[in-house]
């Protein structure tokens, strides 16, 4: 039995069925991401001073990924336009470009951005022990400048086994510049470019630590929202790329030969999904990377 | 909404983002005085102009091909 209204429009809706379906799906996606964005905004507004990290993400890398996603939206719409003009070969190339953009985006996320976070360590110091670590925190300097207090010491953890071994009594951390030289005026503002940890080793007694983790979702509400939203977005990108690969494989040629408009409609529906995913990133990028 | 219309909406949002990033770079440059942000601002504003040019080109192309009616 043939599926009705895959090419022609349905009289009562004025649309072919897949288009109604994708917009209903996108409406549910708006609610999903809308809820997550709302949660992020309220968590951030409610965060006590010094408890919301800022400037930890690499802005140039995020900007490059944003440009790649915008480019992929251009290539997918051009792929669809080429199909409408019955130029399959050009469609094939534009679709390949779209797939490559999606793969590059995911590779940057999974090979560079996320692992860099997983390798980073942070220890929130107990309020009563803050004075003891003044040399790393520089809170007197921060108070003089009217800046929020620094409650966390971050860097590269040398003795990673300290996280799990209760017999190890202290963390040895190659300090981030902000903790290695906290009174340097250059450290008064967040860094939006990647700054590697210094060679200066800081020793933190475990008993002075309120909580200590790598930069994982368990680290803070900030990283929990960051990994949830970018992870969910990444899954959408992965889903889109897989569907595009299917549309790019020889099987699509058979659909094209049978009825080119059918393939064009499929690509349009997938293109709508892809545009939505890219639009989500347009909001994710400034929210997490810049503001 | 069709893909072409959604694409135009997307390009508008992308242009606004590029302008926003440009403004953000100018702000950080004013605060920090780091020339790298000024370069970022110039690149962002140039991207915004390029996106507007592309958007107009896309709209005209679709209209010419009668894909936009």
What is this structure's SSE topology?
The complex is a heterodimer of chains A (291) and B (69).
Chain A: H1 17-46, H2 59-84, H3 88-118, E1 121-125, H4 134-137, H5 139-144, E2 152-157, E3 170-175, H6 177-180, E4 201-205, E5 209-214, H7 221-248, H8 250-258, H9 260-290
Antiparallel strand pairs in A: 1-2, 1-5, 2-3, 3-4
Helix pairs in contact in A: 1-7, 1-9, 2-3, 2-9, 3-7, 7-9, 8-9
Chain B: H1 3-32, H2 35-64
Helix pairs in contact in B: 1-2
> How much strand of chain A?
5-15%
Shape of chain B: elongated
Major sheet size, sense and barrel closure of chain A = 5 strands, antiparallel
Q: Overall pLDDT of chain B, averaged? A: 88
What is the CATH class designation of the largest domain in chain A?
Mainly Alpha
Which secondary-structure class do the elements of chain B indicate?
A: mainly alpha
Distance between the termini of chain B: 13 Å
Number of helices of chain B: 2
Question: Any overview of this molecule?
Answer:
The complex is a heterodimer of chains A (291) and B (69). The relative contact order of chain A is 0.16. Chain A has 2 domains: 150 residues, Four Helix Bundle (Hemerythrin (Met), subunit A), CATH 1.20.120; 94 residues, no CATH class. Chain A has 9 helices and 5 strands; from the N terminus they run αααβααββαββααα. The model of chain A has no long low-confidence stretch (mean pLDDT 89). By secondary structure, chain A is α+β, with helices and mostly antiparallel strands. Chain B is mainly alpha-helical and 69 residues long. Chain B is elongated. At the A-B interface, helix 2 and helix 9 of A face helix 1 and helix 2 of B.
